[in-house]
Design a protein that fits this description.
By secondary structure, the protein is α/β, with parallel strands linked by helices. It has a domain of about 130 residues: 3-Layer(aba) Sandwich (Rossmann fold). Helix 3 packs across helix 4, helix 3 packs parallel to helix 5 and helix 5 packs parallel to helix 6. The N and C termini lie far apart (about 50 Å). The structure holds adenosine-5'-triphosphate. Adenosine-5'-triphosphate binds next to strand 2 and helix 1.
Amino acid sequence: MAESEYVLEAEGLTKQFRGFYAVNGVNLKVRRGSIHALIGPNGAGKTTVFNLLTKFLEPTSGRILYKGEDITGTGSAAVARKGMVRSFQISAVFPRLTALENVRIALQRPTGLTYQFWKAEEVLDSLNDRALELLAAVALDDAAHTPAGELPYGRKRSLEIATTLALEPEFLLLDEPTAGMAHEDVSRVSALIRQVSKDRTVLLVEHNLGVVADLSDTITVLQRGEVLVEGDYQTLANDPAVREAYMGTGHA
Ligand SMILES: Nc1ncnc2c1ncn2[C@@H]1O[C@H](COP(=O)(O)OP(=O)(O)OP(=O)(O)O)[C@@H](O)[C@H]1O
């Protein structure tokens, strides 16, 4: 069977909380190899959609396909094993362990190397090399031996991205990757997302519209649980409905 053009397809995705539609009939298609952003004003339903897609919430109705396969009823761990990985899903950062040790632990998970204790020395050496590569990819090579808890906020987020990448996701889902970051960290993480997107698909929820403009091939704007409009940044920036959704006045 030919591989679908879309890595992810959501059809009629709906989530009700006690009668309130947080997400209502959302159709979403994420093109293979693209960076796709989900934006919208506060309360639009972005986090709920993100949690539905990553199986942290069960939809009230609707269907989710990953690479053409229906994963609506599949658990989050099983989905992650298929290559659809949410940052911070499996890769918690342990504050007392060094950055290198954190990445090494993440590297042990998908392969089951933890059980090959008799090969510990050899395995750890090969893991070290790969862990250092991943740290370099997020510009943390100078912090390899620093306990994760001592890293400043922005660098901790970079470490979380490195531990996520250790799982070799084919489809990476990022929830507000630049939230709470200082300006220089935002640029660094943006560049990092662009770099890691080269051989994978990325879906991100992001409040920083500069980051969205800079990175996204496709942007879906949510409003009150529904898709308001979808397109590239230029198209959306000139769309009166998007301006109104953001400004709430219609005469912005
Ligand atoms: N567990 C829940 N129980 C009840 N209502 C919820 C729950 N989770 C979300 N909601 C409601 O659903 C709506 C969408 O919330 P959601 O967090 O998905 O929006 P968002 O676009 O991510 O907002 P923000 O930008 O503020 O993070 C909101 O009105 C919210 O109050």
